[in-house]
Amino acid sequence: xxxxxxxxxxxxxxVVIQGSVDGLTADSLLGALQKEVxxxxxxxxxxxxxxxxxxxxxxxxxLATVKDARRHGGDLRLAAVTVNVRKVLDLSxxxxxxxxxxxxxxxxxxxxxxxxxxxxxAI
Amino acid sequence: MSGLTPMGEGxxxxxxxxxxxxxxxGYVDAACExxxxxxxxxxxxxxxxxxxxxxxxxxAYADSPGPVRLExxxxxxxxxxxxxxxxxxxDPAQAPPPDLDSDWDDRVEGGLGWHLVHQLMDEVRHExxxxxxxxxxxxxxxxxxxx
Lengths: 123, 147
Hints:
The complex is a heterodimer of chains A (123) and B (147).
Chain A: E1 2-9, E2 12-21, H1 26-38, E3 43-54, H2 56-71, E4 75-79, H3 83-91, E5 99-101, H4 104-109
Parallel strand pairs in A: 2-3, 3-4, 4-5
Antiparallel strand pairs in A: 1-2
Helix pairs in contact in A: 1-2
Chain B: E1 12-15, H1 21-34, H2 39-60, E2 68-74, E3 78-85, H3 112-120, E4 123-128, E5 134-141
Antiparallel strand pairs in B: 1-2, 2-3, 3-5, 4-5
Helix pairs in contact in B: 1-2, 2-3
């Protein structure tokens, strides 16, 4: 089971995800994230505080979204990652390409005013 | 030594479709919880079962679905998982190596499943099943209760 809630926070969109990201639920996560990017909301924060499990299926969704968002001048940043999910991200080499923040507010704040500039490439 | 669950005894579960994944993982979670397996080890076992099951159903069976039998054996020292199928022979060691280092725009997602299984489990073995099919055995050792 996976619950996905989208919360606009100024020029950033927080996607609150709760549940288990696995081979059955990852597609719905990917669909929800891609819908945001397609709608021009490319500055995304995934609040993962309610996600205790992810498999490689979840990693696929995150990788596809971060590529999509960055190519459109935005980014997908992760917040409040739980210990087991963090371990999967580490083991998969994802912590070297994704930005992680302890708190959702910090992740939202990391998108500074400069990020509003159209077409600016995220680091 | 903890023996494998003998055929016809002990907990086992049969599945055939990717849609069965929820039940498969529910079965694994319940078995680990019932046996008091620590959360970290239970997470590893759950992930290993998902990745192996998904690979068998999606790749080994490909277009012609078939049965996968899951056997779990839990004792005080380790969790042993066996997945037995009737699919054409495959070898997890032949999975593409994972891309862990490329920049984000070149990063390829592939081979991460088996990579995670090898990282999170203490032992992963593959052998041909008698007659036809594959047996994947994955072992997670538990922290010593005495320590």
